[in-house]
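[Automated response] Your request has been received and processed.

Submitted sequence:
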Amino acid sequence: MSGLIGDSAVVTDPAARGALAIAEIVPELVVRPGCRDEVAACVADTAARGGALVPLGLGVHRGLGHPPVRYDVALVTTRLARVVDYTPADMTVTVESGVTLAALQELLATEGQWLPLDPPLPALTTVGGLIAADLGGPLRASQGRVRDFVIGIAVVTAEGHAARAGGRVVKNVAGYDLMKLFTGSLGTLAVVTEATFKVRPQPAATRCLALSCRDATGALALAERFTADGLAALSTTVVLELGAAASRSVLLCLVGGVEEDIAAQRARVLALAQRTGAELTLDAAGADPAAQACVEPVRDFVRTAPGNVVVRAATLPRRAGALAAAICGAVAGEAGRCLLDPRAGGVTLALESAGPAHTIAALRSVTAAHGARLVVERWPAALADTIEVWSPLPAALPLMRRMKAALDPRGTLAPGRFVGRL
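Generated structure:
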């Protein structure tokens, strides 16, 4: 491998390899290619040897998905960190896959623009990881998801061939939309080396409002009122404490726009709070450290929450409150925290010291009863062989298996990582 990309880009040090372990499975090599051609050479060499590799950025999201069936090479893309093209007037930007989202946002901010995606830990999330894991955060209900912004992509296939899809202009309608195929595939179909995004103007200002409610029932009722009122907030999140702290429930609302818009939205939030008996405990500009101290933990929750069990559930927005209540009821007495995004229909639960196998089974039963989908984001490594990360399995799984077989017949790319252990 060193003959393909240079000795300095191939790491065999046990500590460096251990730092990229997945469910305690340690790769034999860590390779850090510096360009697309080196990525292609690494993939082709691994395939020719009958090995398997897992594409990674900085690795903070590698816990998502099943452990790989084989993990010979960790292919780290952080050296692919060029800004290929940025045309503010066209509102498009093209970057290599090792650029972090935080660095990209900093670049866009110089022109008053942003990519309205807020995955956990943006300073540690590369563009390749953002796409491969289909990451999002509280902004997704108002702004959209990764697939809504990727208009072009460059990849290396499982045989080591470079390929492109889409383009660098927004009005691109020719050919297959392969961007959506690769988004969320956890690197099992190709290695992303470059992406083009459409971007938007930044809000002129943002403001964070925190409303303290008497209990979880009050917070869920307030969230339902927010949804029914059609408040055009950037994000709305209900934070429900579990266990000994269960009496504390907070609704966080982030609003944005010009000052007149923010004033109007703030007045509507306060009016709703007054009618439900909620207390305003924070009213701060979005850049204020006090606001960031509320917004960032919610954004990063799925990665940074303490505990040995973290799950995400999704349902229709109108059912989200009932689902959150049922999930909290299923783990009554456990210490932890539950987050509800009422507009996206998402519920995220983190438990600090649950009996994992029993708890995950109970949560799967609850979500199934509510017609919801469940993703297990964190579990003890000892359960890796028995946990089904995604449930229920999609009806399209047979088609997905055929797609994997067509694009990666040797099982070179992240084998076993995706839905149904594809």
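Summary generated for your ticket: The two ends are 26 Å apart (CA to CA). The mean pLDDT is 91.
If you did not submit this request, please reply to this message.
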